[in-house]
Each structure stands twice: as C-alpha cells, then as structure tokens.
Amino acid sequence: MFKNKKEYTDQRKALLEKAEAFLNSGNVEEYEKVETEIKNLDEKFEKYAQAQANINALKDGESKSNIALMTGDNKLDMQTKDSISEPEDKFSTLEYRKAFMNFCKTGVMDKTFRNDDTYTGADDAGSVIPTTILQEIISKMEAYGNIYSRVRKISVKGGVDVPILSLKPTATWIGEDAVSNRKKIQINTKVSFSYYGLECRIAVSLLADTTTLDIFERTVKQLLTEAMVKALDTAIIKGTGDGQPTGITVDSRIPADNVITLTSKEFITWDGWKKKVFAKIPLAYRAGGNFIMAAGTFEGYIDGMTDANGQPIGRVNYGITSGQQERFAGKEVILVEDDIIAPYESAGTGDIVAIFCKLSDYCINSNMQLKMFRWLDHETNQWVDKAILIADGKILDPNGVLIIKKGA
Q: Which strand (E) or helix (H) includes residue 227?
C-alpha cells in the first residue's frame, strides 16, 4: 500500500516497466497479471484520493453536499448522492487526445501522460488509444462487419477451458412398477481460447500529413475500422487457428456428414438443394440459421431459381429502411466479399462456396482494448506505428454448421 501520491506513482511506474518487459518478450500471460495489478492499484488510489478530498473538504468548511453522508439506515442521502460527480475518463480528455496525436506523429508522448498511461523504451513506445476513438471503432465494427456483428462476444481469461453444457433428458412411459431413470447433467465439451494479436500498421507519412486533431482522429478511425473489420470477418469464416481465430470452415469438429458437395447440375436446381442441403439441417438449428455466400453466387445462381411449380426460391425483398434483404427459401442470406468465400463462378472443384450456420454459436473472446505502439525498424531506418488487438475465436457448437462445396 502507498502513503501518498508519490509512492503510488513510483509503484505504478515500476509495474508499467514490468508489463513492458513481459510484452516485449511475448509473455502475454504474465503481462495480463501485471495489468491486473495496475488496475487494482488504480482502484486503491481512487479510494485514497476520494478520502483525501473528503478530509480536505471538511477542513476547508465546505458544504456537506460535497462528501458522502450516511443516513440512519446506512444508505446514501439522495441529495448528497446526486451531488457526487462521476470520475472523468482521462483517455477522452482533449489534452490526452492531442498528446496521443503528437505521439503517433513524432513518437514522443507528453510527460504528463507518459508515466501513468504509456509504455516507453529506447526503441519502442506504446500508448492507449483515446476512448473517443475506441468507441467509434467498436461502433463501426457493429455497423459494417456483417459477420462480426452477429457473433457472440465474451471476455474470459485465455487458456481457461470454457465448458459447454449438454442437457438432453428423455421421457419414458412407465407402468405400475416402473420409474424413469434419472438423467445427469453432462459437461462433456470444452473450448479453450488463446492470446492472438491482431495487428494493423499505419504509414507514418500519412499521419504526419494530418495536422489537425479532427482530421487525425477521423483518419485513425477509418484506417483501423476498415482493417480490423475485414480481418475479423475473414478469421471468423476461414481463420487457420494458428496465430489467429479458428474459422468455421476449417474447424475439425464439424461432423463429416455436414460437409456437402453439390454437382454443377444440383447447385442450380431446387431439388438438389432440397435433398442434399435442407434435408441435412437439424431441426434444432433451423431457427436463426443463415446462409453465407459471395454476392456473385447469390445473384448468379440462387436468385431466380424456381421450384418444380415455377415459384421463385431465392428472392430479394426491399425493406423500408434496410434496402435489399436477400433470402433463400425463407432463410436470410449474408453476402460477403469474394476473398472470404469464393463465388461459384471462379471457385474450383472442392472449394467452399456457401455456409449455413447460426453465427451466434461462434464466439469471439477479447476485451476489445486497442493499443498503439511505435518502434524503429533498424533494417529500414523507419518508424513503424501499429495498433494491436488481443482476441481469439471458435465455433461453440459445430453440429448446426453445414459446409457446401462445389462439385464437378
């Protein structure tokens, strides 16, 4: 524990140096532990600072409404409670935003923030991205990431097994002397998440040309949003699991019977889809499931398909506010770029051309804290700026996933 602000600052600086060393060595687990220590230290200092403020207020004879008064039933007096202000977010202040802009352009962070909020060294430096930018990034991810916006998001410690509950009791008919067997809850499946870094590098020359705070923040938002959203959407679908999340299409836990190959004739007929695809969708997974495919596949092969009675199967309805709403036999179709799922026209034999799944069964594990780092690349003698997001992802329940491949 500390006795004054100087001791708190010294302890925090020492912890930050430890965190920097672990981060540079790639020891993320120890880095997370030190980060927790820093958080606990900050919480203790906040309580200490509040107590000191209350004592000073009493000494100065200020109004009692500036401190917390307790009533007889140990509850905060409502008038006093309303007068207590929320602590300001230091990462959203104008001073920090300007200092952060200068850090990205020059590599030098203002000393007011450097000791408390940044990791610095001789050849590298890191700084927390201002809250105002981070909030905008998350907002745009939800708006423009068609895949990312639909998956489940959690924040659990990496390396910890997360159990998946399996509860499937059965009912049996009983006679005069027979009773049904007791069914136990089984936790027979576990998923573990790792620490993977998603990195986005930004050209120094571009940042150096953005001279105003408003233009700088808009530039950072645009660059990070486009890069992060594309990387997350791609990883959710086809991430290798090696240094990145495990994509739906490469997960080895998907049942072999759920991988379906449609010949060129079957792919363009309702009868082929009905018998080989829709018949394979388990009833429990039909609600909330979506098709995911390239725009060229839907527009060129699904839209306009008719059944035996000539009724259209793939339809494009126009909503009042959402524009086009693509659907295939009542199921929503999520269109993705060609680099995520190849369109049928250019896909090779055996390539994946469509997916059916419930995206809420896929889970992204991340605290969504982005940090900006800068270091000198001695090979090129250039300063490099990058943002890093720690995240991992896996499908929690692979049984409802259908993979459709292109046949001969």
A: helix 213-238
Element (H, E) at 253: none
Task: Look at residue 51 and give its three-state secondary structure.
Answer: helix
Domain locations in the chain as residue ranges: 1-87, 250-364+397-406
Locate tokens 């790639």: which residue?
A: 26
Measured between alpha carbons, how far is 228 from 200 in angstroms, rounded to an integer?
7
3-state secondary structure of 247: coil
Cβ proximity of 158 and 365 under 8 Å: yes
10-residue mean pLDDT profile of the chain (408 residues): values are: 75 82 77 82 75 58 42 42 52 79 74 52 53 67 74 79 56 61 52 78 56 65 77 92 92 93 92 92 88 93 80 62 73 91 94 95 82 71 73 90 94
* C-alpha distance across the termini of the chain, in Å: 71
360-393 as b/e, with b when 16 or more CB fall inside 10 Å? Answer: ebbbbbbeeebbbbbbeeeeeeebebebbbbbbb
